[in-house]
Amino acid sequence: MQEDIRVYVEEAPGQRRELEAPTDMGLSLMELLKASGYDIMATCGGMALCATCHVEVLAGPALPEPGDDELDMLETLPVVHEGSRLSCQIRLTPRTDGLVVRLAPTGA
């Protein structure tokens, strides 16, 4: 039986909200954030075509490198950070336990 993992969302400096997520459903970080009430448009439905699910990875385990589609979309954003990722491209697995992210400001 697979245990749940924890993902943390920094809502303000020094203020983090803990989210629990199952790892046996193949969910993406975007799906977890939307289900948790965060305002993520995800216009393309998780296909790495719109960048409206942009997050900044602040801490946690090393993630797989972004694919070409994700990198292409990140290049279209006006503001990109070192840890910028598309949350639709981050799969929740036991290896993502402890991930800390911050939602990118809308329009950025």
Automatic annotation (TrEMBL):
Q: What does the similarity note say? A: Belongs to the adrenodoxin/putidaredoxin family.
PROSITE patterns xrefs: 2FE2S_FER_2
The protein's GO terms of the molecular function aspect are: 2 iron, 2 sulfur cluster binding; electron transfer activity; metal ion binding
Q: Which CDD domains match?
A: fer2
The 2Fe-2S ferredoxin-type domain sits at 3-107
Origin: domain of life:
Bacteria
SUPFAM superfamilies this protein is in? Answer: 2Fe-2S ferredoxin-like
Q: What is this protein called?
A: 2Fe-2S iron-sulfur cluster binding domain-containing protein
Task: For this UniProt record, give its keywords in alphabetical order, as a comma-separated list.
Answer: 2Fe-2S, Iron, Iron-sulfur, Metal-binding
Q: Report the InterPro entries cross-referenced here.
A: 2Fe-2S_ferredoxin-like_sf, 2Fe-2S_ferredoxin-type, Adrenodoxin-like, Beta-grasp_dom_sf
Q: Name one GO biological process term.
A: P450-containing electron transport chain
Q: Which cofactors does the annotated protein need, by name?
A: [2Fe-2S] cluster
